């Protein structure tokens, strides 16, 4: 939703943990609009600015790619109920990390 605050949060998180975007297995992000999803890929450091389209074209954002992004189906799959979407994304990540996501399970998801 906000490129600058997403970039700052991601930078702080990776800096404090010593992790990088490549260490992440599964991502749930706010995809309220297709453009927001692309901007968020860049803000999270998944690709250089202006290269999010290439990330998608390579298949790096789905099963078999570098990351599985929004295995839940994203906001539209839930009807984007305001106020509940963030909670649903947190639940999806918990299920993924516990190995309880059923058919959506990202194999070996740890982070």
UniProtKB/TrEMBL annotation:
Superkingdom of the organism of origin: Eukaryota
Pfam families with a match to the protein in the record: Thiolase_C_1 (PF22691)
Keyword Transport applies: yes
A molecular function GO annotation: lipid binding
Signal peptide: none
Keyword Transport recorded: yes
Matches recorded under Gene3D superfamilies: 3.40.47.10
Enzyme class: transferase
Thiolase C-terminal domain location: 5-110
Biological process terms in GO annotation: lipid transport
Keywords: Lipid transport, Lipid-binding, Transport
EC identifiers of the protein: 2.3.1.176
Name of the featured protein: propanoyl-CoA C-acyltransferase
Originating species: Micrurus paraensis
């Amino acid at each position: 939703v906000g490129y600058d605050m997403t970039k700052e949060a991601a930078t702080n998180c990776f800096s404090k943990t010593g992790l990088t975007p490549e260490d992440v297995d599964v991502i749930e992000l706010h995809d309220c609009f297709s453009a927001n999803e692309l901007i968020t890929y860049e803000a999270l450091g998944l690709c250089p600015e202006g290269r999010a389209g290439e990330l998608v074209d390579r298949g790096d954002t789905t099963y078999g790619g570098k990351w599985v992004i929004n295995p839940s189906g994203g906001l539209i799959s839930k009807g984007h109920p305001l106020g509940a979407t963030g909670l649903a994304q947190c639940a999806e990540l918990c299920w993924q990390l516990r190995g309880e996501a059923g058919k959506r399970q990202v194999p070996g998801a740890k982070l």
